[in-house]
Amino acid sequence: MGRNILKSSVQNAWFSIIFQILFRCITFILNAFIIRTLGQEVLGIMNVRLLLLESTILFLSKEPLLKACLTDIKSHNWAQVINQIWLSVPISGILGLVLVYIWINVLTPTEPIYLSQYRLGCYAVALTCIVEQCIQSVVLVAQSYCFVKLKVVIETIYIVSRTIIFLVLVINHPNEAINAFSIAQIISAVILCCCYYGFFFWYIPILNRIKSESNDKEKEAKKTIFSDMGDFPFNSVWDFFPGIMDNEERMLNRDLCLLTASFVKQSVVKQVLTEGERYVMTISPVLTFSQQSMYDIVNNLGSLAARFIFRPIEDSAYFYFTQMIKRDVPLKSQEQKHISESAEVLAQLCKVVMSIGLVVVVFGQAYSYTVLYLYGGPKLVENNLTVTLLRFHSFAIVLLAVNGVTEGYVFATMNNEQLDRYNYIMVIFSITFLLISYIFTYIFGPVGFILANCINMCARIIHSIIFIEKKYKDTKHQPLIGLIPTYNFVIVLIVSGILTKLSEIYILNTSIILHIGVGAILFIITISTWALENLTLLRLGYDKYKRRASLKTD
Hints:
- This protein has helices spanning 5-37, 40-69, 78-85, 88-105, 112-133, 136-144, 148-172, 177-212, 215-220, 254-274, 276-283, 289-302, 304-324, 336-376, 378-381, 384-413, 416-444, 447-471, 487-506, 512-533, 535-553.
- It is mostly helical.
C-alpha cells in the first residue's frame, strides 16, 4: 500500500479534532436550549438513559470487529474481512432486543407523562444502531485506505442533519421532545448510510476507468483522491456486502475471529469503565433524571478536552501503532526503523497529552465557576456542586489523557494471549470501579463518580506503563520519558495556578472580564514556555506542514 500511515494518522487526528469541536459546540448549544425550554428531566432521559442505550449497542457490536479488522490490513483477504464486519448487524439486532426489554421493563421508569415517548425512543435507538452497522464495511474500507476527509465531511452532515431535524420538530411540538429525538435519530442514520454508499457508488466506477486508461491519465490523477489506489480491491459498491467478492478460502478468517473474541471481552469491560457512572445512575436510583442531566452537562463540559482532543489522538495513535508494530514478534526482531519511529511518536504523544492535561488542571481550579456561569447563567452555578464537579473533572482529565495514549499503544501491540490475560485484569478493574462508584456516590454524592474514575484511571495507567517498560527493556528507546514534564514548565504552572486563584478570590466579584484577562495572559505565558522548550517538535511539525503545502501547490 503506497499510502503514508503516519501522515494519514496525523490527518485523521487533526480532522477528527475539528469535527469533535463542531459536534461539542452543537451539543452544548442544544443542551442549553433544552434546559431553558423543555426542562432538565427531558434532557436527563435523552442524554443519559437513551444515549447510554445507543452507546452500549454500538460499542459492543462494532468495536471488537472493527479493531480486529483494522489489524495488519496489508495482509487482508478482503472477502473474509467484509463477511466478518457484517456480523455486527445481527449482533446489534440481538443486543437491541435484549437491552430494549431491560430499558423498558427493568430499569427505573420515567414519569408517566414521558413513558410512551420513552418507549418509542428505546425502539428508535435500537433501529438506528442496526442501520449504522450496515455501513461498517464501508467505514472500514475508508479508514484502511486513508479516506480521512470523507469521514469528517459525512459525519458532520450526519450531526448537523440530526440537530436540524430535532430542532424543527421540537420547536413545532415542544411537548414531544423525546419523540423528536427518536425521529431525528432514525432519519439522520439513514442519511449517514446513504452518504457513505453514495460516495463509493460514485468513486469506484471512476477509479476503475482511470486504472484501465493510459499512464498519462494516471499521472493527471496522481494528486487527487484517486492516487495511490492501484491496490484498491473493490470493483463495485456491491463488493461491500457479504458473500459477493470472489473468495477461494473459508468464509471467515480464523485468526481474525480469535482476535475479535479477545476484543469482545475487552470491549465489554472498557464500555463499563467508560460509561460506568451512567450505568450506576441508570441501574440504581442514586440521582433523579434532573440531577442526572446536570451531572451530564458538567461531565461533558469537564471532559471537553478529552472528547475533542484526546480521543481522536488515541484513535489515530491506535491505528498508527497497529500498522507499525507486529503483535506477535519481539521488537528486536522487527524492522528497527519502524520501532524507532513508533517509540519517538509515543514519547511525543505522551509529552503533548500530559502537558495539555496539566494546563487544564491548573486553570480549571480558578475558572470552573467562570466557565459554568458563562455557559448556563446564574442558575447553573447557584448550587456550588456544579463548580465542585468541574474542578474535580480537571484532575480526571490529565489521567484520561495519559491513559488514552498509553492504553492505545498497549491494545495495538498486545498479542492474543496478552489480550486475553489483560481482559481478566480489566474485569477486576471494572468490578472494583463499579463498587467504588456506588460506595463513593453515597458518601460524596456525584463527586464520588469522579473520584472513582480517577482511581480506575490510575490503575490502568500503571498497568500500561509496566507493559510498555517490559516491551522496550531490550532496546535503547525510552518512550515513557515524555510523561515527565520539564522543570521550567512545572514552575510556570505553579505560579499560574497561584495567581489565577488569587484573581478568582479578589477580582472575579468585581469584574469577570478582568479575571478572564488575567487568565489569558498567564495562559499565553504558560503555552509560550512549553513552546520554547519544545522548539524541535514544533519545528518538525511546521516543516511537515510546509512540505505538504508545497506538494499541494506543485
